[in-house]
Specification:
Layout lengths: L25 H16 L4 E3 L9 E4 L11 E11 L3 E8 L2 E11 L1 E7 L5 E7 H14 L10 H17 L8
Length: 176
């Protein structure tokens, strides 16, 4: 497995709409394993393919507690088919917007249809942290960031900060 470099705000790829996965095969499963390795290393609880530079409708999640057995979930071509009327507020962060957290209100529960890592259709009914995480990562697949759920003032402040950080960061070097 390979830890992949994370795409950070303000990289414009984060605003792209990801394309559906056409075929679930061994190379896609290896990519899913790389995504999980990257997410655990970060550390995070969710990661969309676009966050490692691949505009594919795929994400990985693991909301298990530190003292629990890992419970990785590979979600391919997810589609939210139902949202609860009840709302929840969770503090969210994002591996592509490091060290910034804000409270975001979303539906408390969602039902999501998707393909698993073997290409088999699945449906998950999620609430709590899993529902929040699924919505956050599916937003990524649509070019939406969690800061888009904040006021324009807060969002603009975050974007300005990350643009400045990107200017101050040395250019990435290609190896090999």
């Amino acid at each position: 497995m390979t830890i992949r470099p994370l795409v950070l705000l303000p990289d414009p790829i984060l605003r792209e709409t990801s394309k559906p996965v056409e075929r679930v095969d061994e190379s896609l499963r290896k990519f899913a394993d790389d995504m999980l390795e990257t997410m655990y290393d970060a550390p995070g609880i969710g990661l969309a393919a676009i966050q490692v530079g691949e505009p594919l409708r795929m994400l990985v999640i693991d909301v298990s507690e530190k003292d629990e057995e890992p419970a990785p979930l590979v979600v391919i071509n997810p589609e939210i088919v139902a949202r609860s009327d009840a709302r929840n507020v969770h503090e969210e962060g994002c591996l592509s917007i490091p060290d910034y957290y804000a409270e975001v209100e979303r539906p408390a529960g969602v039902t999501v249809n998707f393909l698993d890592r073997d290409g088999k259709p699945q449906t998950i009914e999620a609430d709590g942290l899993l529902a929040t995480c699924l919505q956050h990562e599916i937003d990524h697949l649509n070019g939406v960031l969690f800061i888009d759920h904040l006021s324009k003032l807060k969002r603009d402040m975050v974007v300005r900060k990350f643009r400045k950080l990107a200017k101050d960061r040395p250019p990435a070097r290609m190896v090999g």
